[in-house]
Amino acid sequence: MTGTSFISINEAIKKKKGKIAIRGWIYRERGSNKFKFLVIRDSTNLIQVVLKKEKFKKQWKEIDALQIEASIEVEGTIKEDKRAPIGFEVQAEKIKIIGKSDNFPIQKDQSTEFLLDNRHLWIRSRKMVSIMKIRSTVFQALREYFNNLGYYEFHSPSISSVAESGQELFEVKYYNHKLFLSQTWQFHAEAAMYGLEKIYTIAPSFRAEKSKTTRHLSEYWHTEVEAAWMNLDELMDLGEGTVKHVLKRVLEKNKKELKILNRDTNILKKYLTKKWPRITYDKALKLLKEKKKMKILWGKDLRTIEEDKLTQIYGLPVFITHYPKKEMAFYKPRDPKTPKTSICFDLIVPEGWCELIGGSERDTNIKELKKSLKAIKEKLENYRWYLDINKYGAIPHAGFGLGTERLIAWICKLDSVKDAIGFPRTMLRYSP
Length: 432
Prior knowledge:
alpha+beta, CATH 2.40.50.140, 2 domains, eight-stranded mixed sheet, five-stranded mixed β-barrel
């Protein structure tokens, strides 16, 4: 069909009637000895195409053999038909078969592992396409939010000599040195913050966690923020504003995709319109004991089950602040008012996803930082340049890290974070 002006299926539907030319892949097919019904998909929508045998006698054998996922070009007349899958159909006048398909392996009711093994094909599905469209909106909304607040996008190395947790590192042979894939941009971001003041990034981070849960990835996209002169309350304001802005944009732009995923948008709207509670770790333990009959020993980190119970109490995302210092990363400072706690927070969200954001003010006391590093048996020489930052005009500052795939999975109410990214990497999965 050389010279034909093709339009998307959505554009064809908006046209409602008249001659159109579309192209895409066969999503469903059925037929008889007189007709062939093809549901065609492209990246925008689906539409039914009807081919009459009497019009395509020379091509009928080839048309009748068409299978799911074959690619075609079609010219014809679009008209409204309430019996069709989306209320419109195309009466075909010309068809060109571009790429044949033979026994496409993705069928109904196949196992999660099979779909992961065949992610290179499953990514074409309506479910995955819907998630990837929402993912795109999420990334756009994150950048929009920070840019509008005057933040600069800053990028740090993916290969690093310093780490947040020595037990969760991927080693990299870097010429004659043993280095690591970055777990966070934070250390370099704190250095850059002294010049740019307000910065963010959305970039891959790597955690060698020996975890097989539905909430963990070995490679994930990390949304991180670092800001000068910021305290914990202001940081929580920023975190709440960030997530609410993303929710707002997804609800505006992805109504169709949320419907395909059967997501209850009224729940998302509730999260958007209400103020999110802020409680201390101490209050969290008290609530769990009083309302959920769960007694947690002070000093223990909250597990997913306890976080989930807390969100059930409020029915909203919840900020938990002032965790025990001994359980926190070395750069999270002690609270002078309650020295056994740290000036930090986790944002936990309902519906089973729990921790979404972790953030804190940053410790600028070099002696305290050294003491904390020694306590976790880190070599101070590896952090020489990081400690050096605080020798020259140290100021109060704060930052957080948001797991972007967890945000997407929560918005879409997915069973696993592995479906929130095109090609997931986990402890057991590195292909395709």
